[in-house]
Amino acid sequence: MSSPPRDSERLRRKRGSIPSMEALGDDSLKDQSLSIVVVGASGDLASKKTFPALFGLFRRDLLPKDVAIIGYARTDMDDEKFHKKALAHIDTKKYPEESKKFTKILSYIHGPYDKDEGYQKLEAHIDEIENKRPDNEPRNRLFYLAVPPTVFADAAAGLKRNCYSRKGRNRIIIEKPFGKDLETCRELLSSLKGEWSEDETYRIDHYLGKEMVKNLLVLRFGNIVLDATLNKNNVSNVQITFKESFGTEGRGGYFDEFGIIRDVCQNHLLQTLSVLAMERPVSFAAEDIRDEKVKVLRCIPPIKAEDCLLGQYVAADGKPGYKDDDTVPDDSNTPTYAGLALFINNPRWEGVPFIMKAGKALNESKVEIRVQFKDVTSGIFTDIARNELVMRIQPDEVIYMKLNSKLPGFETKAIPVELNLTYKDRFTDVDIPTAYEALIHDAIKGDRSNFVRDDELDVAWKIFTPLLHWIDGKGPGPKPQPEAYPYGARGPKDSAAFSAKYGYKRPDDDYTWPTTSVQANL
Ligand code: BG6
């Protein structure tokens, strides 16, 4: 007798079908041989994110059967040292066999980023690998740029001149920062476009690879009840909150040039907002989805200074303040916290504030979307809690809807309760892919829907550039000074008043989630 299907298998079989991307166009490289080149292979991003994601795909058997991964960077190291670096953030104890096999497909070449000779050496190495494959195999190549922005243009051009495959398909993956404002972003895009077509370019915003963000499309458009209620008639305000319980330790020099708005709001949180707020796309095809995202972003006017609250953390409880970092100038006004209110001028959302809050060195690490509905029309109830739909992106994926229900017993008293979908309880044996695994997998399949198109970036920068220029002292009036908050606080002291200004009502203090039991007081 065969054993019953596991939870994940059962769900997969029953799942409502979404036309797969393969059915929409055969761009997948999965069933052909592939050379993956990681440029910047000795750096932090590669070791913390790229190699663990490639390993994750490898152990799940989601890389092509015939695949080679070639690291390229300036550091001179032998294969053994490179393997150590590539495995540094992989749990080799949990996966001893798989990690051993993984190193067999890894090799490394060192060379400069700004000279052809390095890329020519790289090309010879890739060629040698590809020459061992059958003659009729296409020579597909995926280049992953895990390098700082100062090197983007040189690396993209060097690869195009020297390592571009004429006998297969080429894709290049790049990651933020895409400039520092509208103008620098346009410069960067046009220098890259000179070499790589839009179709070949995959711009990562790793928030688009997170499971809960990917779920937004299904939640919104697969549920009449949600799609019908998410609009200005019912929603009071939407909050998108990003909190980290650690500061910029060790990254102060980099961070000071960017600040929290460029680091997180203009990209990760705005991308999340656009998927949450966009209209229903014609299909799940990448261009249909991205068209809708651009459309909704174009309805957002530039953020005004008065719709912004800035903060910067200072030392507390033995933890260093932002400016205690030697690489941060003493007079830095770079925000490590920002509260922003955005408005979408379209028929669905007109007048509904979208409050973005992002901060480093706060009281906890959490990212969530909170849709707060309007008050019930007064009359029969006094003081009844508002409905809320909360979608927690991390640390654990959870969706819960706060409703009012009668407290069981003789009296008629309403209390807030939750409809609760906690992923780890509901999907017990599902191993959720990391954002980078999901996105590299998409890039191999040729599914661009979760990558950022050039016009999305342009419109995203238009929303933020005037505000950023004002903070940088390039706008009219003096530079704003962020409000100090202690390391480990909930934010600057004005942060609660900031949300309240846009209509957010904090639940009663005695409400906590998850609530396991309520004193029924029968
Ligand atoms: C990065 C930012 O893009 O995203 C970091 O540069 C931030 O400052 C990080 O910590 C957050 O990503 P995640 O996946 O940890 O939420």
Automatic annotation (TrEMBL):
Positions of the UniProt region annotated as Disordered: 1-24
Top-level division of the source organism's lineage: Eukaryota
Enzyme superclass (EC): oxidoreductase
Enzyme Commission identifier(s): 1.1.1.49
Gene Ontology cellular component terms for the protein in this record: cytosol
Domain Glucose-6-phosphate dehydrogenase NAD-binding: 37-215
Pathway it works in: Carbohydrate degradation; pentose phosphate pathway; D-ribulose 5-phosphate from D-glucose 6-phosphate (oxidative stage): step 1/3
Entry keywords, A to Z: Carbohydrate metabolism, Glucose metabolism, NADP, Oxidoreductase
Gene Ontology molecular function: glucose-6-phosphate dehydrogenase activity; NADP binding
Annotated Pfam families: G6PD_C, G6PD_N
GO aspect biological process, one term: pentose-phosphate shunt, oxidative branch
PANTHER family named among the record's database cross-references: GLUCOSE-6-PHOSPHATE 1-DEHYDROGENASE, GLUCOSE-6-PHOSPHATE 1-DEHYDROGENASE G6PD
Family the UniProt entry places it in: Belongs to the glucose-6-phosphate dehydrogenase family.
HAMAP family, per database record: G6PD
Protein name: Glucose-6-phosphate 1-dehydrogenase
Organism whose genome encodes this protein: Trichosporon asahii var. asahii (strain CBS 8904)
